[in-house]
């Protein structure tokens, strides 16, 4: 099947690497017109050149920049069909380890950005008759760890924020669907570097793998295919839902 998102204009945050880059690649392969954004300008431009898509430099925590980015997409493409809020950071630590500043920083990047992205994008998407918003939550938003106080709760907030915005869009009948994705541990360069930074990387890799009943970490395509489905009209009856793709992590 090709062309599943043919002609759709997609804005995807944090597209320089990892799941964002893989999702952008999959959307392009299915015919979308993709603009990625990232706070890392060098990596973002390199990825955009490699994939053959647009790039805008953006810090997703900056409300003024969100408004500019949406205006730039409208000027360049005249419409916006899909917003993928992928950019995020992982802040490790228990309630006693994390400073109030680091806790706040996790929420600003992981939650506030999604509120701002939806708020900025919805008017343009509605003007074009609707579309799909895909917000990156995490299996960590379902399954708590004593050492992920900020990230667990931020990703749970993303799933609930998604539901609230989905209901608002439904009430407005603006044609916009809003869903979240909840990946398990996916072997991205970010996760590779976390593993490499632990005292015993082999043991950490094994622990990450067996934590998921399926017995391995996910691959980026496991999530990229889900993003294509949610971006496409195939998912036209789905809204407000958390899409769990985690090798069984959340039910173990
Ligand atoms: N990799 C996993 O195992 C996993 C599991 C569950 C959920 N997730 C979620 O999936 C998404 C992508 O994860 P990943 O592993 O590919 O992450 P990553 O760290 O590899 O990529 C995140 C991208 O976001 C960008 N970014 C960070 N802060 C930004 C900001 N303020 N403004 C704009 N861009 C910013 C980074 O530069 C980077 O390119 C995240 O939302 C993450 O929480 C990942």
From TrEMBL:
Uppermost EC category: oxidoreductase
The name this protein goes by in its record: Glucose 1-dehydrogenase
SUPFAM superfamilies reported for this sequence: NAD(P)-binding Rossmann-fold domains (SSF51735)
NCBIfam families: PRK07231.1
Pfam assignment, any one: adh_short_C2
Keywords from the named record: Oxidoreductase
EC number: 1.1.1.47
Oxidoreductase found in the keyword field: yes
Keyword Oxidoreductase among UniProt keywords: yes
Superkingdom of origin: Bacteria
GO molecular function, one term: glucose 1-dehydrogenase [NAD(P)+] activity
Organism lineage: Bacteria, Pseudomonadati, Pseudomonadota, Alphaproteobacteria, Sphingomonadales
Family named by the database record: Belongs to the short-chain dehydrogenases/reductases (SDR) family.
PROSITE patterns: ADH_SHORT
């Amino acid at each position: 099947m090709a062309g599943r998102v043919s002609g759709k204009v997609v804005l995807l945050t944090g597209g320089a690497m990892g799941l964002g880059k893989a999702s952008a690649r999959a959307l392009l392969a299915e015919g979308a017109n993709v603009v990625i954004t990232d706070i890392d300008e060098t990596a973002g431009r390199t990825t955009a050149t490699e994939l053959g898509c647009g790039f805008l430099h953006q810090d997703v925590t900056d409300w003024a920049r969100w408004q500019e980015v949406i205006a730039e997409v409208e000027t360049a493409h005249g419409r916006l069909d899909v917003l993928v809020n992928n950019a995020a950071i992982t802040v490790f630590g228990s309630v006693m380890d994390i400073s109030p500043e680091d806790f706040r920083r996790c929420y600003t990047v992981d939650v506030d950005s999604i509120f701002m992205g939806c708020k900025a994008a919805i008017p343009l998407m509605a003007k074009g008759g609707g579309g799909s918003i895909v917000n990156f939550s995490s299996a960590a938003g379902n399954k708590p760890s004593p050492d992920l106080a900020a990230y667990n709760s931020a990703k749970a907030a993303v799933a609930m924020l998604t539901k609230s915005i989905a209901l608002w869009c439904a009430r407005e009948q603006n044609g916009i669907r809003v869903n979240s994705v909840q990946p398990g541990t996916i072997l991205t360069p970010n996760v590779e570097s976390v593993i490499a930074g632990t005292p015993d990387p082999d043991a950490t890799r094994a622990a990450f793998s067996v934590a998921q009943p399926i017995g391995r970490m996910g691959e980026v395509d496991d999530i990229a295919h889900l993003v294509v489905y949610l971006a496409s009209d195939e998912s036209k009856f789905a809204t407000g839902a958390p899409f769990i793709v985690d090798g069984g992590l959340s039910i173990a």
